[in-house]
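Below is how a single chain appears once it has passed through the pipeline. First comes the sequence as given, then the structure the pipeline wrote out for it. We keep one example in the README because the format questions we get most often are answered faster by looking than by reading.
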Amino acid sequence: MIPPQKFKELLEEKGGVIIDVRTKNEYNNGHLKKTDYNFDFSSADFERQIEMLDKDKNHFLYCRSGSRSGQAAQIMKRKGFENVYNIGGLQNLVNAGFESSQ
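Resulting structure:
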């Protein structure tokens, strides 16, 4: 897991795709404003959904605590994604100054 400041630096320097891996219900209750996708890690569709992503881009994953995003990052790395970062839990990111939808 990378700290929020490192996430901010990477996003500003290189850009990337921000993915919330929580459930649709969790996502609807609040997410980072800059989120590009909500791919539910516990969904049967998760691996199919990530296949449509560009493996050359940076991918930043978050969830509630950092656990699911860590597991999702490992799956993506096994599938050939090189620049995948677990950025932790939503509340920690909001506390660090990232804007949320709620």
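Residues 4-95 form a domain with the Oxidized Rhodanese; domain 1 fold (CATH 3.40.250.10).

See the next section for the split statistics.
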